[in-house]
Description:
Largest sheet: 8 strands, mixed
Order of helices and strands: EEEEHHEEHEEHHHH
Distance between the termini: 108 Å
Shape: elongated
Number of strands: 8
Structural class: alpha+beta
Oligomer: single chain
Amino acid sequence: MGFSNQDPPERERGEHWTYFGTACGKHWNGYVAGPPVGLTTHKVPKSKPCLAKISGNALRCPWCAEGVRQDWCCWQPVYREDDHRPIIIILMRDMWDTATAFRLHQRIIIGRGQLQSDSVWVKGFPMDKGYQTAREDRQKPADITHALLTMWKIPELTRWYVAQATAEKRAPAAPAAPAAPARPDPAEAVPAKRLTFDEFNKSAVPALRRLLVVNPPQPDGPRMLSDTLDELATAPVANTTTPPAPSENGKHDKRKRKG
């Protein structure tokens, strides 16, 4: 009897991301795990974010105070093709447009030039089917925020981030937008009621008087709409259901009336 397979459990603290440097003249393949994180940095000697820029001037940057030149780079999460290990690579500003154009799980090639001064480059395989996995935690873009905080090792930045994240969780949720009124179902629509002549006089005629603005009648002037409404409201209702009375000889006159 064999053992039944069990899926590997998810890590309690999420993926364990590690930085991977590409040697000069080498290249390797991987898959895009999420969007890049581009920041203003200082090289001291490794690239670290400018504390003033990343915190919106809430933190004092010691490297800006020392006059260290500002630079820029981005951290790109990648699943390495050989072993699917979660890797973070560092790209310079020339690769920003390329990195932001990648789609999630797209297959890419990562390389570096022959010279020590050459930076890492990336290039995509647009026709490849991309990264295939059944793991639910890798179906969505990876968030490397905590991995970057661990990699940078800047205690004041970590404390500031934790305080901001805690405040956001405690903030009251925004009220939900009112739901749009439901459109009536044509199948459930109630047919319009046909008004009798008396009902029309009681409802439509007063409403027309309120909506129409007419001038007072002038002597020998044109007939006004208000006069017509008055006649309509006071006119007797013709009885269309009672047949005409018979003639004296019991026959009706079938001759056409002359106009």
